């Protein structure tokens, strides 16, 4: 399919048809960031939530100087929790270290679990050690998806001093939590990590045992290259 011209995309983004606007927004994938930005901004306040969500996500992918302040504004002020969560997620893709503190604030202060979840995931993506204490706190959440996000993020941070904190999930009843633990331990080369991975490699769920085996191989490879 031929890529539509920028003029055609701009026109379609003004269409009364939400389907046409959605297709036009999706077609910006192949457009350079600087050219895409004014077109993304056209639908940032679209009446259709799915289109708004796509536009917010695009701000994390089509990075320009405008993206960071736009995403921070959405994260901190948008009344829709889904959009705030999208903004938190997009900030992780943007890979801008300035986002660490706003994301930590969102984790502590936002009343919606989805926003806090997205903030925790993005803090892992940013790999900034300042996020460690927030992620340790997230481990105590009653929501298992939050525990999954925090475990994965601490692995991304390579937070060796958090190994004891995450090992308590080795017998979690949720196999996805155990899988995230097995994956995270592959980034945390300690004797306790290897011991836990040997235990998890015998897990009754195949996804958990496979993740553990792969992490053991990863740790062994890292050790052999030292």
The total strand number stands at 0
Distance between the termini: 49 Å
Secondary-structure content class = mainly alpha
Bin the helical content. Answer: 55-70%
Assign the CATH architecture of the largest domain: Alpha Horseshoe
Rg? 20 Å
Top-tier CATH class of the largest domain? Mainly Alpha
What is the CATH fold-level name of the largest domain? Answer: Leucine-rich Repeat Variant
Count of separate DSSP helical elements:
14
Could you say which overall geometry the principal axes of the C-alpha atoms support? elongated
**Could you describe the largest sheet, including whether it forms a barrel?**
none
Strand content range? under 5%
Mean pLDDT over the full residue set? 94
State the order of secondary-structure elements, H for helix, E for strand: HHHHHHHHHHHHHH
Unreliable segments (pLDDT under 50, ≥5 consecutive)?
none
């Amino acid at each position: 399919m031929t890529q539509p011209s920028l003029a055609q995309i701009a026109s379609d983004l003004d269409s009364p048809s939400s389907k046409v606007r959605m297709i036009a927004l999706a077609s910006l994938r192949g457009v350079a960031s600087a050219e895409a930005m004014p077109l993304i901004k056209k639908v940032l306040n679209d009446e259709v939530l799915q289109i708004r969500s796509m536009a917010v996500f695009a701000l994390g992918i089509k990075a320009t100087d405008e993206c960071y302040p736009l995403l921070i504004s959405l994260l901190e002020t948008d009344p829709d929790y889904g959009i705030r969560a999208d903004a938190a997620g997009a900030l992780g893709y943007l890979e801008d270290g300035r986002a660490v503190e706003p994301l930590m604030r969102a984790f502590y202060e936002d009343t919606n679990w989805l926003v806090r979840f997205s903030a925790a995931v993005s803090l892992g993506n940013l790999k900034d050690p300042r996020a460690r204490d927030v992620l340790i706190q997230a481990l105590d959440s009653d929501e298992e998806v939050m525990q999954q996000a925090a475990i994965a993020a601490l692995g991304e941070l390579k937070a060796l001093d958090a190994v004891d904190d995450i090992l308590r999930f080795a017998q979690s009843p949720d196999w996805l939590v155990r899988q995230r633990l097995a994956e995270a331990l592959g980034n945390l080369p300690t004797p306790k990590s290897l011991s836990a991975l040997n235990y998890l490699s015998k897990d009754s769920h195949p996804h958990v045992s496979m993740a553990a085996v792969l992490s053991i191989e990863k740790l062994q490879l890292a050790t052999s290259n030292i």
